[in-house]
Design goal:
The protein is α/β, with parallel strands linked by helices. The chain folds into four domains: 10-50 and 63-293, TIM Barrel (Alpha-Beta Barrel); 305-494, Rossmann fold (3-Layer(aba) Sandwich); 526-537 and 549-656, Sandwich (Immunoglobulin-like); 707-826, no CATH class. It has 25 helices and 24 strands. A six-stranded mixed beta sheet has the order 9-14-13-12-10-11, with helices on both faces. It has a four-stranded mixed beta sheet with strand order 7-6-4-15, with no helix packed on it. A four-stranded antiparallel beta sheet has the order 19-18-23-24, with no helix packed on it. Helix 15 links the parallel strand 12 (402-408) and strand 13. The longest helix is centred in the C-terminal third of the chain and has 33 residues, at 794-826. The protein is globular and about 90 Å long. 57% of the residues are buried. The model has no long low-confidence stretch (mean pLDDT 94).
């Protein structure tokens, strides 16, 4: 241990207090030992530090900070060096606000386009996700504070997120959902890592000794602090034993008592406790100097300029018929679309940043050489119909050379806590696009969305620029591309399917039941579409440019590839060279090809450069569930180099001896996975892949019963609670504005009451509530009947019934208060 001398002077109570939050975003200090508090802050796309009343959903105001482009936009740049610069700026801002750990980046795999938080995750591919995440961590930690990659692991949906069990086979877990985290941890050494809310194969991620001990700490060498997601702790003692360090946000002293009782009973060894305390102390002492030394201000203008550069780099040119873009100086432009004036530049929830400023396309048009003939919103942002707005937009479009039409998803469609209901833009936007094209065919769409959308409407546009979610300077970045100041170099970091039903997980996403079954296995994103030969709207890695590039001179070896890339156009630009590894002849099933490396190269017109992309043995390996190791199948491998997963320009072949491991699926019927026919895998084949029977999906009554399941309980009181919550949820859905507070409670398990009430309740209170859900309160009916029989009256009977229900809960609350006060006196 690094701080054994310090830890040896602590009492058991002091040790246990270090492993939990004292405030919504701060840990507990021990002043007598000089151990300071650590202040956390949300931060996937900027610092969300709340100086006043804090919350974990992003509902209350935070200190002004730069809202950089979200992760999807940065990932579209395929530029780790840019990502590192952006992250360093975020780290500097965090330190200036007294923040010691920035909660980001987010690198969960985009299993399905409907996940509500896809905008704050990088990609469907673990190679790209892990590389970009490692760059973020290096950038943040270059300022002396800590980064906190999240959410570890297999966290793919917002629905039921605190009690959903992600059921998947070990190979898929390792190759898809953990691989990005492995790259991030081994290449950037983050000081912390955040566990996800969900269970993984029946065990909460935060309590999984397999995830936290065997893999994260022992195999990858992580020696930092593991932090729970806010309210994500189930059993703190079990978490500490497994390798989890700090429970957040502020569960109160009841959680301290749980740890102390576990140590005294032998359920938790003091050696394990001391390891976690050592990690907490190291974190506090390692980030404190940077926070103390940081200036209490930052260069907002310089960071805004960096945000604009990053937004432009993340723009992906999806279509450009007749080279409509870039627009020449003097082009008469009609600016249409509500987003042109009020941009959608970030998602909702805990990542929402209180921006230092926000640019708009309308506000910046005066900086360009374009001739703005006018602006019209064209449609109601919430999806409502407005014939007047539509008519005015069509009239304006008829008087312009080119229409810049701003379309996109809205803030309420991309939010933490809620998954999207579909992949479509609002109908009123699609109808307007079609009508505008009928008036003026020169339509260039600027699209704002944090994930893939259905794209049939693109037929109504000559040019489409996908701006993703560009942050506070996104409008300037988009205009830089539109006017040619920046040559577009963004490439899609996720596949855009033709329609939602084409996605193999679509039939069961999001899972409303207790289990989320990953029946598609390895076949996520392009891995599925290419293996199954299914057409897509836009492939992974795709993006157009204002110039052209040629590839030549490929040299391939097991150590990597080298090739020459030349800019064959007349505009300076950057190409993203992508390296995919394939094994056409194989015994063990695998996707058609997989991204194993990439390089972004900037070239002047006519310039050429030699580019190298390294590979390692792991680039060819698969995880063998029989040996429990990474193995390489012997034989010929193709190294495919291209501009997207579908645009392969050069192919080299290398021979590998392999490790000689047996086929783990010999004698096992995994036919759907051998043919990539995984859109509707039956129970038998999924069970065969798992190597075990399928888990029971029936909701149970207990501490982890969600509020959305209370209708399955036996309590009249909680039936009323369930009906009220359901009514509020449905009312919000009908209005088109999901209520984050209602959704959080709806998907919240009962045990979160002990974790999210600042110490007012503990697990004793939760257990009293569970007894009521089981039907304890119906015993009060006996008292009511007795009251009526004895002539005491219905009023007295009702009072006795109420006392019967309330008394156990009230006594549990009182017991928690008394025990907390007793412990507080010892601290």
């Amino acid at each position: 241990m690094r701080h054994e001398d310090l830890i040896s002077t602590m009492t058991l109570a002091e040790k246990c207090t270090l492993l939990q939050g004292a405030t919504t975003f701060g840990t507990r200090p021990i002043e007598r030992l000089g151990i300071p508090s650590v202040e956390f802050s949300d931060g996937p796309s900027g610092v969300r530090h709340q100086a006043g009343d804090a919350d974990h959903l992003g509902l209350n105001a935070s200190e002004p900070a730069t809202c950089f482009p979200t992760a999807v936009t940065i990932a579209n740049s395929w530029d780790p060096r840019l990502a590192e610069r952006v992250a360093a700026a975020m780290g500097a801002e965090a330190a200036s606000q007294g923040v010691g750990v920035l909660l980001g980046p987010g690198l969960c795999i985009k299993r399905n386009p409907l996940c509500g938080r896809n905008f704050e995750y990088f990609s469907e591919d673990p190679c790209l996700s892990g590389t970009m995440a490692a760059a973020y961590v290096r950038g943040i930690q270059s300022t002396g504070i800590g980064a906190c990659p999240k959410h570890y692991a297999a966290n793919s949906q917002e629905t039921r997120r605190q009690a959903s069990d992600s059921v998947l086979d070990e190979r898929t877990l390792r190759e898809i959902y953990l691989a990005g985290f492995e790259t991030c941890v081994t290449e950037s050494a983050p000081r912390t890592i955040m566990t996800s809310y969900n269970l993984v194969n029946g065990t909460y991620a935060n309590e999984s000794s397999h995830l936290l001990g065997d893999i994260l700490r022992d195999e990858w060498g992580f020696d930092g602090a593991v932090v729970t997601d806010w309210g994500g702790s189930n059993d703190h003692a079990a978490g500490v034993a497994a390798g989890s360090t700090i429970e957040m946000p502020a569960p109160g002293l009841g959680s301290v008592r749980e740890l102390m009782d576990a140590v005294r009973s032998g359920a938790l060894s003091e050696a394990d406790l001391d390891e976690r305390v050592d990690e907490a102390v190291e974190l506090a002492l390692s980030v404190a100097p940077a926070v103390e030394a940081a200036r209490r201000s930052f260069d907002a203008d310089a960071h805004h300029a960096l945000a604009r550069e990053a937004a432009a780099a993340g723009c992906v040119l999806l279509k450009n018929e007749g080279e409509l873009l870039p627009l020449a100086a003097g082009t008469r432009v009609a600016l249409i679309g509500d987003f042109a004036k009020t941009p959608h530049y970030q998602g909702a929830g805990s990542s929402a940043v209180n921006s230092t400023r926000v640019d708009s396309l309308l506000g910046l048009m005066g900086e360009t050489d374009l001739d703005l003939v006018g602006y019209e919103p064209g449609f109601e942002r919430d999806g409502g119909e407005s014939p007047a707005r539509r008519g005015a937009a069509l009239d304006l479009a008829a008087h312009a050379d080119v229409v810049l039409l701003c379309l996109g998803l809205t803030e309420i469609q991309e939010s933490e806590g809620a998954d999207r209901p579909d992949m479509r833009l609002n109908d009123n936007q699609l109808e307007l696009a079609h009508a505008v094209a009928g008036v003026n065919p020169n339509v260039a769409v600027l699209l704002s969305a944090g994930s893939a959308v259905e794209s049939d409407w693109m037929d109504d546009a000559r040019a489409v620029l996908y701006c993703a979610l560009g942050g506070q300077a996104g409008a300037g970045g988009a205009l830089d591309v539109v006017t040619g100041r920046t040559c577009p170099s963004g490439r899609l970091s996720e596949t855009w399917p033709l329609r939602l039903s084409d996605v193999p997980s679509s039939a069961s996403f999001p899972s409303e039941g207790r289990c989320a079954e990953y029946r598609e296995g390895l076949y996520v994103g392009y891995r599925y579409f290419q293996s199954a030969g299914a057409p897509v709207a836009l492939p992974f890695g795709f993006g157009l440019s204002y110039t052209t590039f040629a590839y030549s001179g490929l040299e391939a070896s097991p150590d990597g590839v080298a090739l020459t890339v030349a800019n064959t156009g007349n505009v300076a630009g950057a190409e993203v060279v992508q390296l995919y590894v394939a094994k056409p002849e194989r015994e063990v099933f695998r996707p058609e090809q997989e991204l194993r490396g990439f390089a972004k190269v900037e070239l002047a017109p006519g310039e050429s450069r030699r580019v190298t992309i390294p590979l390692t043995e792991r680039s060819f390996a698969y995880f063998n569930v029989a040996t429990g190791r990474w193995e390489v199948e012997g034989g010929a491998y193709e190294l495919r180099v291209g501009a997207s997963c579908e645009d392969i320009r050069l192919v080299g072949v290398v021979e590998l001896a392999g490790t000689g491991a047996p086929n783990p699926y010999a004698g096992v019927d995994v036919t759907p996975y051998e043919t990539a026919d995984v859109t509707s895998v039956d129970d038998a084949h999924f069970s065969a892949l798992l190597g075990r029977p399928l888990p029971d999906d029936t909701p149970g009554i207990g501490r982890n019963m969600c509020f959305c399941d209370l209708g399955h309980g036996r309590s009249l009181v909680f039936w009323v609670v369930w009906l009220a919550l359901r009514a509020m949820k449905r009312a919000a859905e009908r209005s088109g504005r999901p209520n984050l507070n209602v959704l959080f409670v709806w998907n919240m398990p009962l045990r979160a009451i002990a974790k999210m009430t600042g110490g007012m309740a503990d697990m004793g209170v939760v257990d009293a509530l569970v007894r009521e859900v089981r039907g304890f309160g119906w015993g009060g009916a006996v008292l009511l009947a007795l009251s009526l029989a004895l002539g005491w009256g219905a009023g007295v009977g009702a009072l006795l019934w109420a006392l019967w229900v309330v008394a156990p809960i009230a006594l549990a609350l009182l017991a928690n208060l008394v025990r907390n006060r007793a412990l507080a006196r010892k601290l």
